[in-house]
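User: I'm putting together notes for a lab meeting next week and I want to include a structural view of one of the chains we've been expressing. I don't have a solved structure, so I'd like a prediction I can at least talk through. The sequence is below, exactly as it appears in our construct file.
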Amino acid sequence: MGGLDRAPKPPKRSSRPGEAVALLVTTTWVWYIYQPIFMSLAPSALRRIVLLSLVLAMAGCSYLKPPPTPILPPEELYKLGEGHMETRRYADARDAYKKIVERHPTSSYAPRARFLIGETYYRESEFDKAIAEFRTFLSFYPRHQIADLVQYRLAMAYYDQIKPIEQDQGIAVKALAEFKKLVKEYPESRYASDALAKIDISRGRQAQKEVWVATYYFNQGNPSGARQRLELVLKEYPRTLVIPEALWVLAEVNVYEGKDAAARELLRRLVDEYAHTDFGRRAGARLRAQR
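Assistant: Thanks for the context. Below is the predicted structure for the 291-residue chain, given as structure tokens.
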């Protein structure tokens, strides 16, 4: 984003408020000094003099009011926002973009300003606010030329919040759904390839979580609960990196339940398909020890 060459100079303050005060003081002083003369005039002439004095004083006082804030055109507000984004003054940038959305809602700058409001929140790690703004954009401009970028940012706002395996993976599920939507709705997008990679990572996180829970169940003496989780991983996440570990733990479950033949079958699969992994080498050692 391009920045501004220079910050706009503030308007020069008028000296007229001081003039107004001086005019009022002078009018009062003249009335006090020449009161005898004024009182000798006809009532109509006196009224005209008083009225003229009040008009002059009120005209001067009008300068005491601050000038109205000018409504900048959208292109100037957009440039202001760009400059603030470059210097990471995200609150100021957000203020400029909000003025575009509020004061120039039909301008060509309004859609991008709406997205950039969310972007300022995203860069501040205010993910919930960023998500709300991105969703608002997509509801108004689903076929806009940057809609794929907004969908990608929406998915990333979830993805950047994914927690360690030991914690709930609900955020990973939401990130996965948004990346899938990007690939489906905008298959020609420049962000589609990265979305596919993030889909694999998100699925891998969910599979890891299932294996982690299965191992916990097994260690707590609940082999049936562990089996259910492990078989789910083998069925739903067959291309994830946790498959060797899932096979190994499931073999351990079979041994625990006295299903030695089923355990040996899983160990042989580990040796045949995942010999390069630690679990494949451990399976080979186990089979050799059983001969």
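A couple of points you could mention at the meeting. Residues 16-64 form one domain. The radius of gyration is 37 Å.

User: Perfect, that's what I needed.
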